[in-house]
């Protein structure tokens, strides 16, 4: 079977699953998630991150785009119940700065969220490892004056700026790659991080996982990223929760970390 045919089959299967999802009992959802996690683990072994996340987009791993773009970064990048509070909180935070900050958005995805933050920012650089998504953003958001770049944040140098945004990116990477990204954040003043965490605050943070579309929240033992905890131990001057939205049995937490420059 050709790659195109395989991709079309995956997209149709994904569309079918999306329709059924609201009617599936929790144990069926968990069974399917576990199977998908196992499959992704072997499928992506030895692949570059560009190949991995291109495949995630092509097969609708985060859902399917309703428009012609073909890129859909997930319901948590589109659901107004999740995106609106985020935009309100981050806009208020950035808008209160004495000058419009230079923003670097790492893993900007389909830019459905970034486009709403853009107005309160100075220069804006949007980076993603999926070249076709970057090119699509350049066309679709040509009027927003954003410098879209194809960058692998784990291996490439990061562009300069005041504020770095990482919204639902790191949880798709394994711990070793997260360490390399964090080692490059010192030049920024503030990191605005958004990730899922379990609702139960007694969870073990930072359990390792394979790269892919899935989240630590849905691993065999539910977990989530806490960058200030081991093994990452990110050094920060302050941490301020900007917003929290419950979703999918967890909470999507956005934190502004003032970085210590070390
Ligand atoms: C779930 S999407 C989130 C997109 C966007 N931040 C948002 O909140 O709507 C994760 C994005 O991170 C990108 N990504 C993952 N690993 C990356 C890497 N190493 N370098 C750059 N982008 C990466 C993926 O291609 C994808 O577009």
Automatic annotation (TrEMBL):
Domain Methyltransferase: residue ranges: 103-185
Pfam family, one: Methyltransf_25
Gene3D superfamilies: Vaccinia Virus protein VP39
Source organism: Cupriavidus yeoncheonensis
Official protein name in the record: Methyltransferase domain-containing protein
InterPro entries assigned to the protein according to its UniProt record, in alphabetical order: Methyltransf_25, SAM-dependent_MTases_sf
């Amino acid at each position: 079977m050709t790659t195109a045919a395989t991709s079309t089959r995956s997209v149709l299967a994904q569309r079918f699953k999306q329709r059924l999802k609201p009617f599936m009992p929790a144990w069926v959802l968990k069974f399917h998630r576990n199977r998908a996690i196992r499959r992704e683990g072997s499928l992506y072994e030895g692949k570059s991150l560009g190949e991995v996340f291109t495949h995630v987009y092509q097969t609708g791993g985060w859902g399917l785009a309703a428009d012609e773009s073909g890129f859909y970064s997930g319901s948590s990048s589109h659901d107004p119940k999740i995106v609106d509070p985020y935009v309100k909180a981050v806009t208020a935070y950035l808008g209160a700065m004495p000058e419009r900050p230079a923003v670097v958005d790492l893993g900007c995805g389909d830019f459905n969220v970034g486009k709403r933050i853009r107005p309160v920012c100075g220069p804006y650089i949007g980076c993603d490892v999926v070249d076709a998504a970057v090119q699509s953003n350049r066309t679709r958001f040509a009027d927003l004056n954003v410098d879209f770049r194809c960058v692998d944040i784990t291996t490439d140098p990061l562009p300069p700026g005041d504020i770095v945004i990482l919204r639902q990116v790191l949880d798709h990477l394994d711990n070793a790659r997260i360490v390399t990204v964090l080692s490059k954040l010192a030049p920024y003043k503030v990191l605005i991080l958004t990730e899922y965490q379990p609702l139960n605050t007694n969870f073990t943070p930072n359990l390792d996982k394979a790269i892919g579309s899935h989240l630590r929240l849905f691993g065999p033992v539910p977990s989530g990223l806490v960058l200030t905890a081991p093994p990452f131990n990110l050094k920060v001057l302050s941490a301020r929760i900007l917003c929290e939205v419950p979703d999918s049995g967890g909470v999507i937490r956005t934190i502004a970390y003032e970085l210590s420059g070390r």
